[in-house]
Amino acid sequence: MMRLSWFNVVSLTLGFAFLYIPMIILVIFSFNESKLVTVWAGFSTKWYGELLQNEAFLSAAWVTLKVAVMSSTLATVLGTMAAHVLVRGGRFMGRTLFSGMIYAPLVMPEVITGLSLLLLFIGIGLDRGVMTVVLAHTTFSMCYVSVVVSSRLVTFDRSLEEAALDLGCSPLDAFRLVTLPIIAPAVISGWLLAFTLSLDDLVIASFTTGPSATTLPIKIFSAVRLGVSPEINALSTLMIGIVTVGVISASLISKQNLIRQRKEERQAVRAQ
Amino acid sequence: MMRRFLLISVPYFWLLILFLVPFVIVLKISLSDTALSIPPYTPTFDWSDMGAFFRALDFENFLFLTEDDLYWKAYLSSLKIAVISTFFTLLIGYPIAYGMARAPEEWRPTLMMLVILPFWTSFLIRVYAWMGILSSEGFLNQFLLWTGIISEPLTILNTNTAVYIGIVYTYLPFMILPIYSALDRMDGSLIEAAEDLGCSRLLAFWLVTVPLSRNGIIAGSFLVFIPALGEFVIPSLLGGSGTLMIGKVLWEEFFSNRDWPVASAVAVVLLLILVIPIVLFQRNQQKQAEAEQ
């Protein structure tokens, strides 16, 4: 084992300080009494109270949640299918184009994706609102899902599936009973990724939404443009809190699963 | 057979209609006349008469981009900002990734999670956090005034410096993770061998560690450079009126000036600029995948 040098310790400390101090300051000042966000005037939770009474933010949060749930679920189904095609599809016409279309949205600037989708929606005369944002979010997040799922499918032992087919499963049952449980962790993390991407997106939603559907990032962006406000700090703190709890519990669960899986494997080996 | 067809065609057609066709439309509008595409824009979408369309093709919008030097300056300044901030992200990210790779085995999952956590946190909020820090009465100035390093508050918010800080901060995890995964795979005994053979530690690092993490450096740099080039949120929140970035120009052309053909032409040119780094990035990823097999 290599030892950490003082240089490693310093760079890790400074690096993580850089990553976390801005967010910590944000969280601390969400509990500030004063409206001036840079001057501390005593502890208060009043901004959280005001936030919960702000109809505009609440309805935007509801729209965002709806969009995120719908688009991430659709994206997970489509992305898993796409991953299957990429890894197992064999040869078919336009395969290169297909894999190109999977990877391109990952690096496409959001302004271009947003602009092009808006022009499409106008071109085919689709009314812009929740539905168009869902379509837009599904399109780019299915690509992330398919990358995550295909990396799991590549290492998947195909003979398990073949055994199920030999034993009389229909292909759909073999997928449902054998493949899906094995790739489930990747599918779930794909869903989570798609969900977060959708919650987080400002640019593509701004292009593809209509006046009836303002998402939370759009709302935050227009408020933040006017400057720093304690209410936004409170909202940010809530969002950071939810994400932190989510990520930590997800990693704890996956760690436990890994331990259990190793234990079962050892037992299986012993039983033989 | 039917099932296979369905499996392939559903995601295929989804992407064709919602990813490829929109690009064709952007291309088409960028080549159309401004007069034609004033609301309600219907004439631009007349697909039936392609012959007439090709006759009417005009590069006026692209010519316009070359005539007004705003666009050239915006492309150049985006490139400059993206290159400089990628360099600083590498400079800051490499030592962190290196420290992580040398940390005791049992720390690594935690360190890894600490790098990934900001990535799951809202991008907008992470950019917003810097507005309170960099403003003239913000925390950075308060701190520097308190320590006595400066006597007058510095103007950082609404300048290019703030944009650099914002890009480095938000994209740092994208740089750290690929470098860390390259360093993590490295065989530690190689360094020992180099040191046994008389290399100094610094020389061993430069001659052994850096070349072995090359793929990580390349992947990380592209992952920062490509999105930074088209960035919109960071320049519009942290940058000032003097900060020219093409993502912002496209946004304003579209939402404020409502000039769709010019916005589309700006998008097409941005895409052409990005094709080179995207292809290089894909090639690097492919090489890496092949090396792993």
From TrEMBL, chain A:
It comes from the Bacteria. It is found in: Cell membrane. It is a multi-pass membrane protein. The chain crosses the membrane at residues 7-31, 56-81, 102-124, 130-154, 174-194, 232-253. Keywords: Cell membrane, Membrane, Transmembrane, Transmembrane helix, Transport. SUPFAM superfamilies: MetI-like. CDD domains: TM_PBP2. Its main location: membrane. Residues 61-253 form the ABC transmembrane type-1 domain. Belongs to the binding-protein-dependent transport system permease family. CysTW subfamily. This is ABC transporter permease subunit. It comes from Sedimentitalea xiamensis.
